[in-house]
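[Q] Does anyone have a clean structure-token version of this?
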Amino acid sequence: MVCLGMLDLLWFVSDAVAKLEEALRINPRKHDALWCLGNAHTSQGFLVTETYKANAYFKKAARCFRRALDEVPFLAFTSSSCLILSWVVDAQASVSATCLVLIPV
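[A] Here you go.
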């Protein structure tokens, strides 16, 4: 079993971010790429130790989730991601959540 260090994890997530951003340059409205990019930014936020850097990643993630939700308004996974991110961001107390959580009825 291979054990990855924090720098390895950051590199892999950064590589994923670059590839997802490239995909979004081709099709900026691709909701699943936006959702994955939001998850990648959330992961980056949890992998850094500086609060201001984490908050910047969480803000980027919230924007990605918001854009994905704008493309397909009632995606349950996107709404859940926004809700979870809102809790994380609120817990940080230094940034405000930018996601609107829509719960399908």
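[Q] Thanks! Anything notable?
[A] The helical segments are 6-26, 31-47, 51-71, 76-92.
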